[in-house]
Design a protein that fits this description.
The chain is an alpha/beta fold. It contains 17 helices and 14 strands.
Length: 477
């Protein structure tokens, strides 16, 4: 059993091990490089970053922030961090007592809650440094690994842990529910924290996503953000992107039914090589709708490229897709805008699988396939997704700019995988699904099902397989 923990005991412990701290990190490089890969995937270069429990500054420096502040209770750790990374600021202070007047884009807490006297004090302190859009990335050791870790300490295989808490992830989630934070999502890292070829690769890529193996992971993580009050209004405008291919019979109704949202609502119609009068119909409406923009090109390039062209041309902060067939009623678009304008999440995905559908709105084969893809996407992204192919989605333009694009013909999977890769909180909004009024669906079950399976594999590779191979590679822009 560990002794009762005080700030002085924690400070003395880390001051004592500071001279050998980097030695221990090199000895367990696989563990620390996993954490670096996980954090850097979600924190873009040039952000402002605050790290509680920064040690000698390695993780903070790896994020390459434009403004980086590290805080540690150990004066010896801070001294080493300042010597190694003079371009960043390092402060000797308990995290809960930090006294600076500044807000940050991201806050990192790697194994910090394991070594504090009062966990709630840490979260109260963190809240003071949060903007409405700040994300906090937190990792903690699975307490059921205590016997294994104690044995590893005895054989000099890991750094001495010192006095620490026994805190499970579910306890943290409940604790945060009582405070001013919202848990975006959570999961497990490192079913096996040592690098054994193939075994570690499979365990830490796939095993951590499979119950009950995930419960045995050595490391737990949470992504959290400050919980906005109901009256919060970030003052954003909205760009509604309508990709079109031969939608002459629907496009006018779609444009007229787009509601006003936020400070300004822009409508961007992308005519994707239509052979009918879709583009002419839009041009005839531009005098009536001053915020209506047309992008017209030929030949047809597919919905994904049309969506990208619309997003690139969008001028407002919140961007969303409306299918031109109006199978999702445009009147329901504010349900997608409001959570983003209030800072409740970073991505809104529509789901058509809650309300009854009109006859013929979705064929049985498409419905079955959608459920299969929902399960696959939930497994890969570790977020609960029920309807991956609903055309109506909304996100911030700044996040879209960080996403890889062009692998998915429809664009839905590029957006969802991109959001998951950044650690975005994804909310699902139920929508009513109507039958198409004019024209015919472009979805072909077998042909596009194979394409979407290929897209799933690419997402699996980028989110699960590839990161494990890139621990030692320099970060890309």
């Amino acid at each position: 059993m560990c002794p009762i923990m005080t700030k002085d005991e924690v400070r003395e412990h880390f001051d004592k091990i500071a001279p050998n701290y980097d030695h221990w990190k090199k000895k367990n490089a696989y563990y620390y490089n996993t954490l670096k890969a996980f954090m850097s995937r979600m924190i873009p270069k040039g952000s402002s970053v605050l790290e509680f429990g920064c040690g000698t500054g390695e993780i903070l420096a790896y994020m390459e922030p434009s403004r980086g502040v590290g805080v540690d209770i150990s004066g010896e750790m801070v001294k080493l961090a300042r010597e190694k990374f003079p371009q960043y600021e390092f402060i000797h202070s308990p995290a809960e007592d930090l006294d600076i007047d500044e807000k940050f884009d991201y806050i990192i807490m790697v194994d910090v809650v394991d070594h504090v006297y009062d966990v709630q004090d840490i979260f109260r302190s963190a809240y003071r440094f949060c903007k409405p859009t700040t994300k906090i990335f937190l990792t903690t050791i699975n307490p059921w690994w205590d016997p294994v870790l104690m044995f590893m300490e005895k054989i000099k295989a890991k750094m001495p842990e010192g006095p620490h808490n026994f805190i499970e992830r579910k306890s943290l989630v409940k604790m945060l529910g009582l405070m001013d934070f919202d848990v975006s999502y959570y999961g497990h890292l490192l079913l096996f924290p040592k690098n054994i070829p193939l075994l570690s690769y499979l365990a830490n890529s796939v095993g951590v996503r499979l119950w009950p193996f995930s419960k045995l992971s050595s490391t737990q993580y949470l992504t959290i953000q400050p919980e906005p009050k109901n009256e919060v209004d970030l003052g954003y405008g909205c760009s509604v992107i309508i990709p079109c291919y031969n939608e002459e019979g629907n496009i006018e109704d779609a444009i007229r039914r787009v509601p006003s949202m936020g400070k300004r609502t822009e409508i961007v119609v992308v005519n994707d090589g239509s052979s009918d009068g879709t583009a002419d119909k839009v041009r005839s409406l531009q005098g009536e709708f001053p915020n209506l923009k047309l992008i017209d090109y030929s030949p047809n390039r597919g919905k994904g490229q049309a969506v990208k062209a619309g997003f690139d041309a969008a001028e407002e902060e919140v961007i969303m897709i409306l299918d031109a067939d109006i199978s999702t009623p445009p009147e329901e678009l504010p349900r997608f805008f409001d959570p983003l304008n209030k800072g409740l999440c970073q991505f809104v995905n529509g789901t058509r699988l809650v309300y009854p559908m009109e006859d013929q709105a979705m064929r049985m084969t498409n419905l079955f396939g959608n459920k299969i893809f929902g399960w696959l996407m939930s497994f890969i992204t570790q977020q609960n997704l029920t309807d991956t192919l609903c055309g109506t989605k909304a996100l911030y333009k700044r996040d879209f700019k960080r996403m890889k694009w062009g692998k998915d013909k429809w664009g839905d999977f590029d957006l969802l995988f991109g959001a998951a890769k950044m650690g975005s909180k994804i909310m699902e909004v139920p929508v009513h699904y109507k039958s198409r009024v004019s024209g015919e669906s472009k979805m072909r079950s077998l042909q596009h099902g194979i394409h979407l399976l290929t897209a799933c594999f690419r997402g699996f590779r980028e989110l699960i397989l590839v990161p494990r191979k890139e621990f030692y590679k320099k970060r890309e822009d």
